[in-house]
Write a structure and sequence with these properties.
single chain, alpha/beta, Rossmann fold, 2 domains, six-stranded mixed sheet, four-stranded antiparallel sheet, 8 helices, 10 strands, 36% helix
């Protein structure tokens, strides 16, 4: 289980994350809030890409605040896809497995398995620049899942796609995370994405997590007037 304990992160005089605490067990938790509220910064602290000014990050009770990114065994998927244009689809998905030192036969098996998960079987030898935006996002998700991370983090993964593709992938991602039983943090500013994909939602405002619960709990027992307005109650 992931446990974020009273994390604060500053950039100069600006406080991006302010005394934030969050727990993620065997579930998908969405961090939902307006742009600039600190969602992505909190995710980067969990990933180890940013060091908190105060507070700690724990996994199964162990303090991993100072653990390097590559030793955390977390998978991170960005909005920008971050795929390698000079690699084929299969080579992109294999990248994390190669970094783990997985042998070639097992690597091929897990690449095929991951592409099957995201509905892209048969795309192994395709070039990245020939894919649509939705297909690229599926490849990025397969690459994130292939190494079998103990936690998946998705940072606004559908933000750059049109509505039709977003709606289709929204359903697929939620189902895939359930099927693979992978704990996940899903950062978004979109109410529909959070409601569709997450088991619980952490509402974030001005660097602080103001309420955590299911969509129904947030709507029926909002913590304050801002939560009511933001959720459109």
């Amino acid at each position: 289980m992931l446990s974020v304990r009273r994390v604060t992160k500053r950039f100069g005089a600006a406080v991006a994350v302010d005394d934030a605490s969050l727990e993620v067990a065997d579930e998908t938790v969405a961090i939902l809030g307006p742009s600039g509220c600190g969602k992505s910064t909190l995710l980067r602290v969990v990933a180890g890409l940013e060091r908190p000014d105060r507070g700690t990050v724990h996994w199964d009770g162990d303090d991993i605040t100072e653990t390097p990114v590559h030793l955390r065994d977390f998978g991170l998927m960005f909005q920008s896809f971050a795929l390698f244009p000079h690699r084929t689809v299969g080579q992109n998905v294999a990248f994390g497995l190669e970094m783990q030192g997985v042998d070639s036969e097992e690597c091929r098996r897990r690449v095929d398995e991951a592409l099957d998960w995201v509905g892209m079987e048969g795309f192994t030898d395709r070039r990245i620049d020939g894919l649509s935006g939705g297909e690229k996002q599926r490849v990025a998700l397969a690459r994130t899942l292939a190494p079998g991370p103990r936690l998946v983090m998705l940072d606004e993964p559908l933000g750059s796609l049109d509505r039709l593709i977003r709606d289709r992938l929204m359903s697929d991602i939620g189902q895939l995370l359930d099927e693979t039983a992978t704990p996940a943090i899903y950062v978004t500013h979109d109410h529909d994405e959070a409601r569709s994909i997450a088991d619980r939602i952490a509402l974030m405002r001005s660097g602080r997590i103001v309420q955590v619960g299911t969509w129904e709990q947030l709507c029926t027992r909002p913590a304050d007037e801002w939560v009511e307005r933001f959720l459109g109650i």
